[in-house]
Amino acid sequence: MIYEPRELGEADIEDLIELERACFNYHWTREQFLLGLNRKAFKILGIKTAAGLVGYMAFSLIEDEMEILNLGVRSDYRRHGLAARLLQKSFDICVESGIRKSFLDVKASNEPALALYRKFGYKQIGVRKKYYPDTKEDALLFRHDFPKDS
Ligand SMILES: CC(C)(COP(=O)(O)OP(=O)(O)OC[C@H]1O[C@@H](n2cnc3c(N)ncnc32)[C@H](O)[C@@H]1OP(=O)(O)O)[C@@H](O)C(=O)NCCC(=O)NCCS
């Protein structure tokens, strides 16, 4: 089965909310999705199957920087390369758009996400103590630089 990411929009918000609730304790509201999409503050890529929306990634592109805002895959679809596909597609968009660097923050205990981001070349650049409102856990800050000739 080929899981092809595509860009999502306003029509997908209900599916996004459902998936977001399944993946995170602290999630975006309908208004946050709407505002961000309408103002073009971020892009959202998603993967749909016959079972509906099973993975998504939200990221912002500002000047030459990309920031990963959210990335989640439905639990029964994990470990099938969906997050990797979403990340790779966002990297392709970055290269096309002349983006030079990417940032993200991730919970210090989130081993699957840490392994994923390290695999894609992200390096830790800092820590924000007790950053997350839901668990008061530390955030690890990561950065990736796109190769100059990409
Ligand atoms: C993190 C998450 C998005 C990974 O999604 P996924 O589709 O299962 O990831 P993939 O199958 O594409 O895995 C790609 C790579 O990530 C790493 N990885 C993913 N899940 C992992 C796990 N449970 N343990 C260790 N490494 C893992 C591996 O390096 C993997 O490559 P490999 O399969 O060749 O070993 C998923 O676990 C998730 O939705 N978690 C809950 C939400 C969340 O924490 N999001 C991140 C917020 S920053």
From TrEMBL:
EC code(s) of this entry: 2.3.1.266
First-level EC class: transferase
Gene3D superfamilies from the UniProt entry: 3.40.630.30
Matches recorded under InterPro entries: AcTrfase_RimI/Ard1, Acyl_CoA_acyltransferase, GNAT_dom, YpeA/RimI_acetyltransf
UniProt KW rRNA-binding keyword: no
Tree of life domain: Bacteria
Domain N-acetyltransferase: 3-147
Database matches in CDD domains: NAT_SF
This protein's record includes keyword Cytoplasm: yes
SUPFAM superfamilies from the UniProt entry: Acyl-CoA N-acyltransferases (Nat)
Biological role stated in the UniProt entry: Acetylates the N-terminal alanine of ribosomal protein bS18.
Protein name (database record): [Ribosomal protein bS18]-alanine N-acetyltransferase
Lineage: Bacteria, Pseudomonadati, Thermodesulfobacteriota, Desulfovibrionia, Desulfovibrionales
